[in-house]
Amino acid sequence: MPELHLSVEPRDAAVVVAVQGELDVTSSQRFGDCLAEAGTRSSRVVLDMSAVDFMDTTALAVIVGAWRRQSGDGGLFLLAGARYRYTKALWITGLADRIPMYDNVDDALAAAAGHGAVNDPGHDSGAVAGSDGARGSSEPDAAAG
């Protein structure tokens, strides 16, 4: 089983949490602690999922909890780089349409810098996946399996 690597790094007006490896029941506590720490450092958290190789429902619950906590406190919680093949649960549950999602960290940081402290996932300039459909990769790629 690949080892999980987590990092928390201040970037611009946000904190980026980078995840590399598998998010599952064995890593959910550590993952949750890392997201909670990030939330204490900044009102704007970007979760970089571009190197996630697997994600189960326990990890999904951790993400939902962090998103609700951050949003409830008037902050931003943004996902970056989630690949459908490895993070299908985001799409299956409909969260890919609710949690602001960007193709990469730079796009998420640009969006975080352009927003006030309050996050409303349903209202955006168009870069966020959702009912306005601006992020083309928010829809599953047939080849991604």
Q: Could you explain how this protein is built, in words?
A:
The chain is of the alpha/beta class. The protein has a single domain (5-144), classed as Transcription Regulator spoIIAA. Residues 117-145 have low confidence and may be disordered. It is globular. The protein has helices spanning 28-41, 57-72, 88-92, 105-114, and strands at residues 5-11, 14-23, 44-55, 76-80, 101-102. It has a 5-stranded mixed sheet with strand order 1-2-3-4-5, with helices on both faces. 34% of the residues are buried. Helix content is 31%, strand content 25%. The protein has 4 helices and 5 strands; from the N terminus they run E-E-H-E-H-E-H-E-H. Strand 1 and strand 2 form a beta hairpin. Helix 1 (28-41) runs parallel beside helix 2.
Q: What order do the helices and strands come in, and which of them pair?
A:
Elements: E1 5-11, E2 14-23, H1 28-41, E3 44-55, H2 57-72, E4 76-80, H3 88-92, E5 101-102, H4 105-114
Parallel strand pairs: 2-3, 3-4, 4-5
Antiparallel strand pairs: 1-2
Give short descriptive properties of this protein.
145 residues, alpha/beta, Transcription Regulator spoIIAA, five-stranded mixed β-sheet, 4 helices, 5 strands, disordered C terminus
How many E strands? 5
Number of structural units classed as domains: 1
Low-confidence stretches: 117-145
CATH class, named: Alpha Beta
Strand content: 15-25%
Order of helices and strands: EEHEHEHEH
- Note the overall shape: globular
Q: What is the CA–CA distance across the termini?
A: 21 Å
**Overall mean pLDDT score?**
83
* Name of the CATH architecture: 2-Layer Sandwich
CATH topology: Transcription Regulator spoIIAA
- From the alpha carbons, calculate the radius of gyration and give it in angstroms: 14 Å
Main sheet specs: 5 strands, mixed
Helix content: 25-40%
Number of helices: 4
